[in-house]
Task: inverse folding
């Protein structure tokens, strides 16, 4: 039998890992932690892969058998099935271990506890003077003696009154642990809070200084919008502007994506390309690492960073990733790192948009003969990303933006210039506050124009509407989209149309697979 191409093995293994994590998640959702009796886990992954004949976990019997089969049947089609089982069991095992750690938090629900932890993200100011943030590096304390009882993995979401808190502060909170909202496992509402330490790392101090410099150089809401474009943190955007961005279909501008990182990568390549590929690669890797630290390792940011790193390393060695392989490999890697990502709505929306940009948009462009006009290509790319995310948005949020194609067509081409001028304004406000007004006027001009456009479209009575898709309807729409992609690729291949545009017509995001 002919051996399978190497990339097929990668795709199948990544798909098996994602499937294993998803299956374990679905089984875990059937479990209701009422008694915390681990003898009655039922379909819980940690229960049905942890017992087997002779005291050996059942998963290990499957794993050993699959490894033996893969070795005996190597370089055949049947070996692919064996590897599928191997990686599937790995996904189940990783999710079971992660779920066991989560149970330690679930066991605290309903109890009044003392916790110490460090603020993991930028506190978000909500309505009614409410603030929310997450605590990490958690320590459970004895309420009587104050001694450490246990160190807890993961994070807890805290809802409190608005106060001057920043990322990196160490707090002690006392309150009742409750079920979390959305993807948060547990939460605590309006606990008694004590600030133990306000010392921050030098990087965090520089980060806060840059944020203050941006607000010195630019007025609100322009300064917050500029920060949102640069670091992709929605918490920095005022609530009314967040509502407008969602209404006109531009929320993705203030969420770090492959587009943001691609702009940075391309700027470095153009600036340092003449010094050699090695220097360019190292600078890009350091910038991506710093970007992860500055923005926080949320699900969508981890995805975007991993895609960029894989693409840069592959390009350095003269290789390329097919788009589908890149999507599945990064999904498997992020899922293995944190199985909770697969139920994170931001992660799902990020990957759906990624799929639209790298799979659907090139198929449409190839069908149209790779249009020369940049505006047309941006419109296709934006429309493809929105088409892939729309069914999920309608299912969860019941919101449909009518003006999104128009606003994206107007705003997206200005994003690179807005990021560059915002960075200059932030540096000027940090280092030269007296002269920052002169150095920040380009940013004020670009960002002011963008915010005025957003305000104008958001004020239209027909800018958005309420619509809903059921689960069956959502799955049916995605089935139609997948069928459309297969049809487009089949007709393009039969007609001999090139899948990639000429070099002088490449989209910014196409650097990920070229």
Result:
């Amino acid at each position: 039998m002919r051996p399978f191409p190497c990339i097929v093995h990668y795709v199948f293994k990544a798909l098996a890992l994602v499937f294993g994590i998803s299956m374990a998640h679905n089984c875990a959702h059937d479990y209701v932690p009422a008694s915390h009796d681990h003898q009655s886990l039922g379909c819980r992954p940690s229960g049905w892969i942890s017992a087997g004949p002779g005291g050996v976990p059942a998963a290990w019997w499957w794993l050993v058998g699959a490894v033996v089969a893969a070795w005996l049947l190597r370089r055949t089609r049947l070996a692919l099935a064996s590897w599928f089982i191997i990686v599937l069991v790995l996904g189940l095992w990783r999710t079971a271990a992660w779920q066991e750690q989560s149970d330690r938090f679930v066991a605290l629900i309903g109890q009044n506890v003392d916790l110490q932890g460090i603020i993991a993200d930028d506190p978000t100011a909500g309505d009614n003077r409410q603030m929310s943030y997450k605590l990490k590096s958690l320590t459970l304390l004895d309420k009587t003696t104050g001694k450490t009882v246990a160190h807890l993995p993961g994070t807890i979401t805290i809802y409190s009154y608005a106060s001057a808190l920043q990322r990196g502060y160490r707090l002690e909170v006392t309150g009742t642990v409750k079920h979390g909202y959305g993807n948060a496992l547990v939460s605590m509402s309006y606990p008694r809070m004590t600030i133990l330490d306000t010392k921050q790392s030098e990087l965090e101090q520089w980060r806060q200084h840059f944020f203050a410099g941006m607000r010195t150089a630019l007025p609100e809401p322009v300064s917050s919008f500029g920060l949102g474009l640069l670091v992709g943190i929605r918490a920095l955007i005022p609530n009314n502007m967040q509502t407008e961005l969602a209404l006109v279909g531009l929320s993705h501008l203030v969420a770090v994506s492959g587009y943001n990182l691609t702009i940075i990568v391309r700027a470095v390549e153009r600036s340092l390309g003449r010094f050699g590929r090695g220097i360019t690669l190292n600078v890009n890797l350091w910038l991506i690492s710093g970007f992860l630290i500055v923005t926080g390792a949320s699900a969508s940011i981890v995805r975007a960073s991993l895609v960029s790193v894989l693409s840069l390393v592959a390009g350095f060695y003269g290789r390329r990733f097919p788009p589908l392989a890149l999507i599945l490999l990064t999904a498997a890697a992020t899922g293995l790192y944190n199985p909770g990502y697969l139920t994170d709505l931001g992660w799902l929306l990020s990957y759906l948009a990624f799929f639209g940009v790298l799979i659907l948009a090139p198929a449409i462009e190839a069908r149209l003969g790779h249009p020369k006009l940049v505006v047309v290509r941006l419109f296709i790319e934006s429309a493809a990303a929105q088409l892939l995310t729309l069914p999920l948005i309608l299912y969860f949020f019941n919101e449909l933006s009518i003006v999104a194609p128009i606003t994206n067509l107007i705003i997206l081409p200005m994003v690179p210039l807005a990021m560059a001028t915002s960075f200059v304004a932030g540096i000027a406000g940090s280092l030269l506050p007296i002269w920052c007004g002169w150095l920040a006027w380009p940013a004020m001009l670009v960002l002011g124009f963008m915010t005025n456009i957003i305000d104008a479209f958001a004020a239209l009575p027909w800018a958005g509407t309420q619509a809903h898709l059921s689960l069956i309807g959502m799955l049916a729409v995605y089935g139609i989209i997948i069928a459309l992609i297969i049809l487009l690729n089949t007709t393009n291949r039969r007609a001999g149309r090139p899948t990639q545009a000429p070099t002088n017509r490449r989209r910014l995001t196409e650097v990920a697979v070229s």
Summary: The chain has a mean pLDDT of 76. The two ends are 31 Å apart (CA to CA). The longest strand covers residues 130-141. The CA atoms of residues 92 and 254 lie 34 Å apart.
